[in-house]
Amino acid sequence: QNAYEVTVDGEPVELTLREYELVRFLASHAGQVFTREELLENVWDYEYYGDVRTVDVTVRRAREKIEPDPEKFRYLLTKRGVGYYFSRDLEGPGTE
């Protein structure tokens, strides 16, 4: 099986490996903002070489799956001009 599962509001949600690793990393550092470059190094495990769009695409796809309201994000949040973070007000999805 290629999917990785998290639980959102008591419901299982399937993510790809990279989406899962991104959500898991941010949730394990809830409230801490990471730049796209830092996420590439920590989640993708490679140095920044100029194209950070892959981070934005993965965040967008993960949000489409785990966010209950596409207009108001609860989990994967953006710090404008800086990067992404996981809400510190919630437990990480799938963490028990």
What does this protein structure show overall?
This protein is 36% helix and 19% strand. A hairpin with a 3-residue loop joins strand 3 (76-79) and strand 4 (83-86). The chain has three helices and four strands. It is globular, with a radius of gyration of 13 Å. Helix 1 crosses helix 2 (36-44) and helix 1 (17-28) packs across helix 3. By secondary structure, it is α+β, with helices and mostly antiparallel strands.
Summarize the structure.
With 96 residues, this protein is of the alpha+beta class. It has helices spanning 17-28, 36-44, 53-66; strands at 4-8, 11-15, 76-79, 83-86.
Total helical elements: 3
Q: Which CATH class applies here?
A: Mainly Alpha
User: Unreliable stretches, pLDDT < 50, 5 or more residues?
Assistant: 92-96
Q: Structural class given helices, strands, pairing?
A: alpha+beta
Give the strand line-up of the largest sheet: 1-2
Order of helices and strands: EEHHHEE
The domain count comes to 1
Looking at CATH, the homologous superfamily is Winged helix-like DNA-binding domain superfamily/Winged helix DNA-binding domain
Give descriptors for this structure.
96 residues; Arc Repressor Mutant, subunit A; two-stranded antiparallel sheet; 4 strands; 19% strand
Tell me the layout of helices and strands:
Blueprint: E1 4-8, E2 11-15, H1 17-28, H2 36-44, H3 53-66, E3 76-79, E4 83-86
Antiparallel strand pairs: 1-2, 3-4
